[in-house]
Design a protein that fits this description.
With 412 residues, the protein is α/β, with parallel strands linked by helices. The chain is 40% helix and 9% strand. The protein has four domains: 50 residues; 73 residues, no CATH class; 56 residues; 175 residues, Nucleotidyltransferase, domain 5 (2-Layer Sandwich). The chain contains 15 helices and nine strands. Helix 5 crosses helix 6, helix 8 crosses helix 9 and helix 11 runs parallel beside helix 12.
Length: 412
């Protein structure tokens, strides 16, 4: 028996209203398999049995729709679209859009997305038609969330937001959660989940809860290539102090006490000196008193590093800037030799480059450090040293340095 499209539409309406496949088949004098095939052609999942049928969709369980500059099509809109395209003559998509108050492209996408095969013809000639009830069923089913998102749980969400506001990266947040709550897997979250909550998901609600301007510090969409410029001329203060002359113990970071340093410069000849320990990533930062000459820089570094035990000041690696031209005076005063990287090779002091990038989150280029209070710089240093690091097993640099100082104090 051949069933017309109009009969098929009645069958779809019955299934959507809760009728079973068996009841529908009995009405049209066909076997149950035919009704299942009709449902398959419409992209509908049907349950078998006397109480079977299309699983109903409860629109109240769908995610609340945020405020948008456009509106979604309702069931009544779809009924009108079906009527308009089947009328004689058929309405154009622009006319339908004007009547409903939506763009013609919205009508076009709706008709393309929710076509139902009629079973007539073969290959490219196979016909398909639009059914309002089936289209609305598909739309509502796609909006229903089967389970709440990981970050929808208030306690976990609060912890993640708190860490992001402390300028921890998503990977650091994820690793720290596992370390801090080893017996509570419900408080674990992957860094990819945090990234999606910030950027990938359409609503992006998590970033609206942050107090920081950005959750990722780089702010770039791609990496900056390394410089391919020719090397600088040889400078006299580099003799005997190149990175190739540095002891092997400084290379693998296993031995503490090896430091990397550089300047973060600002406007009006201002700047700060940044030092970072290669093993623990502990940072020391000092403000320059309105000058960047070698004598001033050496004096600030000497004051910073002499606060540490002698065992924790083995070497200092710097770039080839002129501010370290008098580095031998620093070595004599502290017992800490200075070694210089190859030209245009910032990766040879990568920890310090990373530190300087973090500092630029607080003080962008062009900042006049002469106008920055010492208390503000100290607060920044505390926050950086309390930042969990993946390379430290998500411990903080302060925790690791305290362990080293304790071990030095207890050593015979």
């Amino acid at each position: 028996m051949t069933v017309s499209w109009n009969d098929r539409c009645i069958a779809y309406s019955m299934l959507l209203e809760g009728a079973s496949a068996k009841e529908t088949a009995r009405l049209f004098c066909v076997n149950t398999g035919a009704v299942v095939e009709w449902a398959r052609l419409a992209g509908m999942v049907i349950r078998m049995g006397a109480r079977g049928g299309i699983e109903p969709v409860n629109s109240s369980t769908s995610t609340p729709e945020p405020q948008r500059a456009y509106r979604r099509l309702t069931h009544e809109d779809r009924v009108f679209i079906e009527m308009a395209i089947n009328s004689m003559p058929a309405w154009s998509m622009r006319a339908i859009g004007r009547h409903l108050g939506v763009a013609a492209s919205t009508v076009s996408r709706e008709l393309a997305r929710h076509r139902v095969e009629t079973g007539r013809g073969r290959g490219a000639l196979r016909e398909s038609k639009y059914h309002a009830g089936v289209a609305h069923h598909h739309t509502m089913r796609s909006r229903v969330r089967t389970r709440p998102g990981k970050l929808d749980w208030h306690e976990l969400r609060s912890l993640v937001v708190l860490s992001l506001n402390e300028k921890h990266s998503p990977q650091q947040v994820a690793g720290r959660q596992r370390m801090m709550f080893p017996d509570r897997p419900e408080l674990w979250v992957s860094h990819e989940t945090i990234y999606q909550a910030l950027y990938v998901q359409g609503r992006g609600s998590l970033r609206h809860e942050l107090t920081v301007a950005k959750a990722l510090r780089s702010g770039r969409s791609r990496r900056t290539p390394a410089s391919r410029l020719p090397s600088r001329d040889v400078r006299p203060w580099l003799a005997g102090s190149r990175i190739t002359d540095r002891p092997a113990s400084a290379v693998d970071r296993a031995v503490p006490g090896h430091w990397e340093g550089d300047l973060v410069v600002g406007s009006e000849n201002s700047g700060i000196v940044t030092l970072i320990e290669r093993n623990t990533r502990f940072a020391l930062i000092g403000r320059l008193p309105g000058a960047r000459d070698s004598a001033t820089v050496i004096d600030v570094i000497r004051h910073q590093i002499t606060q540490l035990p002698e065992q924790l000041r083995r070497t200092l690696t710097w770039d080839q800037g002129q501010e370290m031209a008098r580095h031998k005076e620093f070595t004599i005063a502290t017992g800490c030799p200075v070694f210089f990287c190859d030209p245009h090779s910032p990766w040879q002091r990568g920890s310090n480059e990373n530190l300087n990038g973090l500092i630029r989150d607080y003080y962008p280029k062009g900042t006049n450090f002469n106008n920055v209070a010492d208390d503000e710089i100290e607060a920044m240093v505390d926050q950086l040293n309390d930042r969990p690091r993946k390379t430290l097993g998500f411990h903080t640099p302060r925790e690791k340095l305290n362990e080293l100082i304790s071990s030095v104090a207890l050593a015979p």
